[in-house]
Amino acid sequence: YEGKLTKALAEPVEALLDSASEDTWPAIRKLLQRETKAAVSGLESAISTFELDEATEKELLLRLENHGRSVVESKAREEAARILIRMKDRFSTLFSRDADSLPRVWTGKEDIKAITKTARSASMKLLSTMAAIRLDEDGDNIDTTLSFALVDAARPGTTDRSIQSLDPLASSSWERVPEERTLISPVQCKSLWRQFKAETEYTVTQAIAAQEANKRNNNWLPPPWALAAMVVLGFNEFMTLLRNPLYLGVMFVVFLVGKAIWVQLDIANEFRNGFLPALLSLSTKFVPTIMNILKRLADEGQAPAAPERQRETE
């Protein structure tokens, strides 16, 4: 019955600790109570035929109950020993994947700051869950303490000297948590969080760099101040164009030719590979593209002449 109870508790408890939410320990307590009750009931029925005295029977049932608690505590200590790996895995999952569990593409529209805050908060929730064993329903303030010390204290708006000078994690024990139920002390939590941030900072930096590179590749317009300067400084030239429509016609023709060259050369796609490779590639394709455009214009001009010649021949 001890073996059955171990099998019924070990993997479910590990899965619940990995999910790490406010309902984790209540769910573990409920699971422990249900499986222990079933095991005790089975053992009690099995030993009823041995005609044991009441003290021995109670001792065996109590031993089975304590075994269930020891299984949960042992699994919790195993998970607490690799908490840093679990925190980094959770941060990587939430930061690098969207709500549909697909890899994020940093196009420039994502709020990296908000995504980072959400991923770190989830990792901190995991740390809070693994800080102590909560098989009894005694309340503690571990979650509030970690949130205040690791998140609120890091905000730039916190200017109160008394708040800054007070470090709630400068202790070796949690308030209202016995030492035998402590898995990760406050000082250890502070050290783990510092190491966690250092090891995940590179991921955030890479995302910001990818987002900036994507913005530069997709933004071909000059900055707003340059557009405003062109409008102000080019007012006289604009009025000249309005007074002489011939300029407008020439500019329209130049625009059409430039647009055709832009599309034929696929300039936007060429510059995605870099400035120098794009120049080398465009220099080799420029003359053939111009010749191709002129040939098409010539063919279009000769096309209406063919029916005329056929009509004259008839």
From TrEMBL:
GO cellular component, one term: endoplasmic reticulum
Alphabetical list of InterPro entries matching this protein: RHD3/Sey1, Sey1/RHD3-like_3HB
Keyword tags: Membrane, Transmembrane, Transmembrane helix
Residue spans crossing the bilayer: 246-263
Keyword hit for Membrane: yes
GO terms under biological process: endoplasmic reticulum membrane fusion
Residue ranges occupied by any Sey1/RHD3-like three-helix bundle domain in the UniProt entry: 1-300
The keyword Cell membrane is annotated on this UniProt entry: no
Molecular function, one GO term: GTPase activity
Protein name per Swiss-Prot or TrEMBL: Sey1/RHD3-like three-helix bundle domain-containing protein
Annotated organism of origin: Psathyrostachys juncea
Source species taxonomy: Eukaryota, Viridiplantae, Streptophyta, Embryophyta, Tracheophyta
